[in-house]
Amino acid sequence: MIFKKNFLIITGLSGSGKTLFSNFLEDAGYFCVDNLPSKLIPKFIELYEKNETISSAAIVADIREKDFVKDFPEVFKALRKSKKYNIKLIFLEANDDLLIRRFKETRRPHPLSENIPLKIGVKKEKELLKKIKEMADEIIDTSSLTVPQLREFVRDKFGTKTDQKKMMIHLISFGYKWGIPFDSDLVLDVRFLPNPFYKEKLKYLSGKNKEVKDFILSSEDTKKYLLLLEQMLDFLIPKFISEGKSYLAISFGCTGGKHRSIIIAEEVKKILKNKGLSSKITHRDLNKE
Q: Which residues pair with 189 in a beta bridge?
């Protein structure tokens, strides 16, 4: 019986982006383990195969392990020979100049350059990993990829359509008199809309009340604002998703946080729902005096 779950082994040159690659796989729904010793890989796969809650997994194995060059080829060949597992070996690399620059910028030591110059350590690792590179199902050169481009590559190649569109949007209504929510990504001021506070019958009601809602939504300014807001979100949200953002906090503020901000947040939630986007809502200052 062939192992049907997605399983990736990520290896390659130090500084080529293996950790970032693993992080982006995790964002795409993979269970990831970094720096797993080669001899533990078969045991990990065995346990993973029995786990029904994890459908995709990836491990990073590389020269940080003392006996990697000696142990990994034997372990990987045995896994391939068994024909029980559907495993892909991904090898990441980059040009020497870029690898050297990355280590200098991060000020982290190269695994092989403790007692030798960095340039020599980089070349030595390339030579040591030559046979492992030849075993790879896919070789990816990250030299010309920016971080967003690498994220997009991982998402497009290894993620699912559901993963690619997955984003949680948190809608927050608040009152400026109580301060702006600290975790806001976008802050939208709705104090220009008609204020129910100056209507005696509506003053002590909240945005949850139908009369207050009808009063604000009947305004032409409110109608125009919601149309423009929808257009803005249609433009922004795909951009945020393409940058790998999985959480977006949008805050709507009015004076006290009891009327206009609540209604606009609720209306935006409806707009997002109609577009198939997940959202949750918090009326932070609804019960404040």
A: 253
3-class secondary structure for the chain? Answer: CCEEEEEEEEEECCCCCHHHHHHHHHHCCCEEEECCCHHHHHHHHHHHHHCCCCCEEEEECCCCCCCHHHHHHHHHHHHHHHCCEEEEEEEEECCHHHHHHHHHHHCCCCCCCCCCCHHHHHHHHHHHCHHHHHHCCEEEECCCCCHHHHHHHHHHHHCCHHHHCCCEEEEEEEEHHHCCCCCCCEEEECCCCCCHHHCCCCCCCCCCCHHHHHHHHCCHHHHHHHHHHHHHHHHHHHHHHHCCCCEEEEEEEECCCCCHHHHHHHHHHHHHHHCCCEEEEEECCCCCC
pTM: 0.59
Q: Among candidates 10, 39, 12, 40, which has minimal Cα distance to 25? A: 10
What's the pLDDT tens digit per position in 128-187?
Answer: 999 999 999 999 999 888 888 888 788 778 875 445 456 789 999 999 999 998 888 999
